């Protein structure tokens, strides 16, 4: 039920050049970016922020960042971003057992205590009202340094923007993202919802 129609990938050549980043991440340029092109300053700023947030400068791996994104998107209910995050986690080498059991990260043996602390941080930071408290801080500092915590919160905050953008837009979801979501999230009831490509 797209609110605004995505523009052709050739609409803004600077955006197109920057968006090559997503060929590695997802295997395609997201419709969200193609919609942002209605105001190219937004699409370009978003891509540059995405690249900065997803850069690895510590021990927070690309796969963990995408699982953090998934937990955040699951907390807010954005099915578009859930699908993108699980697809990117897959493409960045998340273990098969983690992909298959992301819903059970708190108890499944595929996840370390450090990963659980990061994913719980994502869950609490994505809720309204915000649930980050002294206990979350204590657990984070057992495993991660301040720079790594900043990287994690960068991902959570980026997906806060994306969750609101894509759920409000009803951004049409791409085939590749649907395939990954069906494989890893379908058993828990994931559906396209408003992202099925129809109009409001």
UniProtKB/TrEMBL annotation:
InterPro entries: AhpD-like, CMD-like. Keywords: Oxidoreductase, Peroxidase. Residues 40-120 form the Carboxymuconolactone decarboxylase-like domain. The keyword Phosphoprotein does not apply. GO terms for molecular function: peroxiredoxin activity. PANTHER family: CARBOXYMUCONOLACTONE DECARBOXYLASE-LIKE DOMAIN-CONTAINING PROTEIN, SI:CH211-175M2.5. This is Uncharacterized peroxidase-related enzyme. It comes from Maribacter orientalis.
